Amino acid sequence: MTAFRTRRTVLALAALPALISAALLAGPAAAQSWPARTVTIVVPFPPGGGPDVAARVLAEKLAPRLGQAVVVENRPGAGALVGAAAVARSAPDGHTLLLTPNTMAISPHVLPKGAGGGVDVQKDLTPVIAPATTPLAVVVHPQLGVTNLRDLVAQVKRSPGLPYASAGNGSPMHFAGEMFKQSAGVDMTHVPYRGVAPSITGTLAGDTRVLFVGLGGALPHIRAGKLVPLAVTESRRSALMPDVPTATEQGVRDVEVNAWYGIFAPTGTPAPVVARINQEVNEALKLADVREKFLNAGIEPLGGDAQVLANFMRNDDQRYGAIARALNIKAD
To answer: What CA–CA distance (Å, rounded) separates 158 from 139?
Structure first.
């Protein structure tokens, strides 16, 4: 028995170099063979918002680079978790990707356990790249008659319960609204929509008069004078709207919230394929017309390696989890 075990060990060790070589060769082969068919980018919000714009701009540029069709599929619901679950359940081969704002990192802290299909966004998805960020702003319908944050605070104190709109429960905009209420000491009613575009449509129609929103999707309406920007919820002014002061500059502190967009693949996707997708998106982000389209839509190009997105995901999970507990933010 001992001799048999020794012989088996020797044979295994002898085969080890070949196995290692095969594994090393398999990595480049996987990357070179991807994509073998249509690539689908799932956006977990309706068409028209910043994430949808970013996905469609990138899809247009990636298709000729990859030699395969790249399509965008909108799967809204449960604060990005419906779309996230759909991607997490797909084959881990790089042909189904998720492009989502950081809503996905926040939703598990405010929605019931199992919402959207029970996806664990920290474990079931692999970060690929953060293609963009977008500043958040407080904007109002012109008929509200305010032009700065101090006037808005005064009006809300005269009319407690004034509704404000966001892109949905658990969205960064929802958090910005609740943090604003806490800091300014005002009472407002949250009206969640199913995405940025519907929240803008509702505000333009006058259904709500106050909107916390990412500039992606809102900027054209601001430039057209249909929405009035009061403040950005960043630590500094945005280059997209340099004349608009921050909330802190106007005396409303501790309302620093922004949004990033991330591209994710199902966990288990081969590392060489993840690296290839990262490379192709980074190359697309260097194109002048891509950057122009992003900026015109209120989206700031970013890019970089997958670790940038992994850090964003981890930090937002911790930060917004703590804020949700402190302010008792839950699904409406």
So the answer is: 19
- Domain count for the chain, please give it: 2
- Tokens 């389209």 -> residue: 293
- Positive or negative, the CA dihedral 199, 205, 206, 207 is negative
Distance CA(117)–CA(124), nearest Å, equals 12
Q: Which of 230, 250, 270 is the last residue of a domain?
A: 250
The enclosing domain of 54 has a CATH number of 3.40.190.150
Give the domain range for residue 228: 135-250
Residue 73 pLDDT more than 50?
yes
pTM, entire model: 0.85
At 84, the amino acid letter reads A
Q: Who's near 15: CB < 8 A, 6+ residues apart?
A: none
Q: Does residue 56 sit within a domain? A: yes
Q: Two tokens at 58?
A: 């990138």
User: 3-state class of 266 per DSSP?
Assistant: strand
Query: Per residue in 145-168, pLDDT tens?
Result: 999 999 999 999 999 999 999 998
Distance CA 266, CA 93 (A): 8
**Residue 14, pLDDT above cutoff 90:** no
Q: What is the mean pLDDT of residues 4-22?
A: 50
| 297 or 7, which is more confident | 297
**Listed residues 250, 272, 291: the one ending a domain:** 250
Q: What is the mean pLDDT of residues 322-329?
A: 92
Q: Closest Cα to residue 220, out of 236, 202, 241?
A: 241
Is the residue at 12 inside a domain? no
Beta bridge partners of 97: 41
Asked if residue 147 and residue 129 are part of one domain, the reply reads no
- Segment 239-252 shows an average pLDDT of 94
pLDDT value of position 203 = 97
If asked whether residues 192 and 219 sit together in one domain, one would say yes
In a shared domain, residues 223 and 129: no
